[in-house]
Amino acid sequence: MIKFNGINHLAMATGDMDKTIRFWRDLLGMRLVVGLGQPGYRHYFFEISENDMIAFFEWPEVNPMEEKEHGYPVKGPFIFDHVSFGVETKDNLWELKDRLAAAGFAVSEVIDHGLIHSVYAFDPNGVPIEFSHAVEGVDVRKHPRIADRAPSEVTREGSEPNFDKWPAVKNPTPKQERKVYPGVGSELFHGIKK
User: Chain-centre distance of CA 72, in angstroms?
Assistant: First the structure.
């Protein structure tokens, strides 16, 4: 079975990488760990944790998103509501709230969701962000809970994956045919140009 180890990176977009760096690196304290670029294109990565990163493409014509309140329903084409970053302590959550407010960013009060306490804000690109601290003694990874009043049949199947719901792999790629092609960034680490 595949074992995931976190979110390698979330990929967002910005029209102003410098403002993005100031927010994510200098205000939130996430290290800038990769910077790829050429005229008209930059792709920068910030370290969230030892396994997780957030990245931004800078494209000159990108404008900040219109702010939409986190979790409120929308209609029409839509793909992304918000991203939540976990923090280790309650004090970290309050520190982030205070730092965002001091820097002039609108930030919510601390909200109790039962399993987490959270604050909500937006980055300079309009990316809706949440910062969350797990409530002491509540671990939904060890003890999943579904409180949906009208769960679907699929939901009622439980928390564990049901791999038999998809076709089995009949022809896995043989090791001798596994080829990895160079992409943007390979020249930085391997000297290979795309």
Answer: 19
Decide if 53 is inside a domain: yes
Residue 83 has pLDDT above 70, yes or no: yes
The SS3 assignment for 131 reads strand
- Residues paired with residue 111 on neighbouring β-strands, in sequence order: 118
Is residue 170 a part of any domain in this protein?
A: no
Q: Give CA–CA dist 86/131, Å, rounded.
A: 6
Residues 89 and 54 in one domain: no
97 plus 155 within the same structural domain: yes
Per-residue pLDDT at 37: 83
Structure tokens at 189: 């680490």
What is the pTM for the complete model shown?
Answer: 0.83
Q: What is the mean pLDDT of the chain?
A: 89
